Amino acid sequence: MSIHALPPHPVVLPVVAVDLGVLIRSRRNARRPRMTQAQLGATIGYSAAWVCRVEKNELTPPWEILIRIARILTITPEELGLAPSSPGRPGPQEAARSAHLALPATRVAPDQAPADQEDDPVRRRNFLAGAAGLGATLASTATTAAAADSSTATDPAAALESALFQPLTAEPMPLDRLSLALTAARSDFREARYTSLGEELPALIAAAEATRDSLSGTRREHASTIVARAYVLASELTVKAHSDTAWVTADRALRAARESGQPAPVGEAARVLAIAMRRSGRGHTAVDLLTHTATTLGAERGTPAPSALAVRTSLLLTAAYSAAVTGDRTTALNLADEADQSAQRLPAGPDAGLFTVDASAQQCALYRIGIHNALGTPDEGIRYADSINPARLPTAERRARFYTDTARMWHQLNNPRATYAALRGIEHQAPEEACRPAVRALTADLVYGSAALPGLKEYAVRTGAVSA
C-alpha cells in the first residue's frame, strides 16, 4: 500500500508513492533509545498490534494520526511524499502547518493555539447547537441527564474545538451557580457522557472566564479554580477524542490554576498538560514536568493535607506511565512504587478532592496494567488486573479504563476471547468509551484477526469500528 491510499486531506495531498509501513518502522527503530511498537502505540493511544498492522501496510492511519506519528518520529513532509514548493502547491513547510505537522525547527509550543484552523460550517452548527443547550443548563443549574446513543456519537469534542478559536460571549454569574454547572460537567465526565460534556463545556468555560474577569481578591481566585477545572475537563475530553487541541486546553488550565493559588488545581492542570506532551512524543519532558510538580507540593514527608497527597499520587502515576511510554522501565517502576507508597499514606474515605481521577491502591494497580502494556511486558500486568474488582472503581470512566487496559493486555498476549470479553466490559460500563478512536482501532484489529468470536462483528458495527 502506498501513501496514495490515504483518505483525501483538504490541503495536503501526497504526490510521490511512499511505503508508509517501512518508513514508520525504520524511523521507530532508529530512535535512541529504540521505540517499541507498544511505546509508539501508547503515545498515540493505540495498541501495539495496531502499530504492527500499520507497519505491515494492512491498515492506513487517519490523516490526523499519521500527522501525530510523523511529528513523534520526526518524519518530514518530503518523506511522506509531499511535493516541494511550486506555484499553486503548498511546499513542505506550508503543508506541515496546514496538517499540524510540526517540523523540528517549527515545533508548536504548549501555549500556542493552532492559528491556521478554519471554521467548518457543519462543526460550527454543532457548536452553536451545543452552546445553546448548555445555556439552558447553566440557567437552571440542572445536570444534563441524557447521554448520546453510542451508535450515533461522532466527535464529542467538535463543539469544544470550535469554541477554542471562536469563543462564546457570556455574562458573569454567581459563583454558586457556576460551581453547580461545573459539578454537572464533572458528573458527565465521570459517567463517560462525553457527547453531553462536549456540548456543555463551551458555554461553561465562557461563563467561568467572564465571571473570573469581573471579580477580584479571593472570589477571583475561586473563579479561577472553576476556569482551571473546566479546562481540565476539556483536556480530558480532547485527549479521549485524539485531538491536538489538548495542548491548548491544558495550557489554559495551568494558567488559570496558577492564578487560583491552590495546589490541587495546579497539579491537575500539570497532569493534563503532561499527557498532551506525552502524546506528541515529548515523554521525557512530561516526566520532568510531573515529577517537578509533585515535588513542589511538599507532600513527600510530614503530615501533608490529604488533597496534596492525592494530587502527588496522581502525578506520580501519570509520570510512571509516561516513563514507560519512553521505554524507561526503571524510572517507570520506581515512580509507580512511589505512587503506591503515597497512596498508602492517604486516609480512608473519599477521593480527597481530586477532580477527574482518584488516588487509591486500586488506581495504582490499574496504572500498573497500562505501564506494562507500554513497556511491552503485558504478562506482568496480569496479577494487577486480577487484583482489581472493577465494581469498586469509583466512576464509569475509570471502570471503562480498566477494561480498556485489560483488553490491550490480552490482545498483546494473543488471547482474542479475553480481549473481546474486556471490550464488551467497556461497552457495558460506558458505551461512549467503546466508540473512542483507540478502542475502535483495537476492535477492528480483533475483527480482522484469525479468531471467530460470536457477536464480535455486531459489536464492531455497533461501536463504529467497522461498517455494516
Explained architecture:
It is a single chain. The protein contains 21 helices and no strands. The chain has helices at 20-30, 37-44, 48-55, 63-72, 92-98, 121-140, 158-165, 175-190, 194-213, 217-240, 246-260, 263-279, 283-296, 306-325, 329-344, 361-375, 382-387, 396-412, 416-429, 437-447, 456-462. α6 (121-140) crosses α9 (194-213).
Concise overview:
It holds the Pfam family HTH_31. The protein is built from 21 helices and no strands.
Topology:
Layout: H1 20-30, H2 37-44, H3 48-55, H4 63-72, H5 92-98, H6 121-140, H7 158-165, H8 175-190, H9 194-213, H10 217-240, H11 246-260, H12 263-279, H13 283-296, H14 306-325, H15 329-344, H16 361-375, H17 382-387, H18 396-412, H19 416-429, H20 437-447, H21 456-462
Biggest sheet architecture: none
Strand residue percentage: under 5%
H and E order: HHHHHHHHHHHHHHHHHHHHH
Q: Which regions are unreliable across 5 or more consecutive residues at pLDDT < 50?
A: 1-15, 84-153
Count of β-strands: 0
The number of domains: 4
The number of distinct helices, counting runs of at least 4 residues, comes to: 21
Class inferred from helices and paired strands? mainly alpha
Report the principal-axis shape.
globular
Residue-averaged pLDDT: 81
Separation of the first and last Cα atoms: 24 Å
Rg of Cα set: 22 Å
Helix content percent band: 55-70%
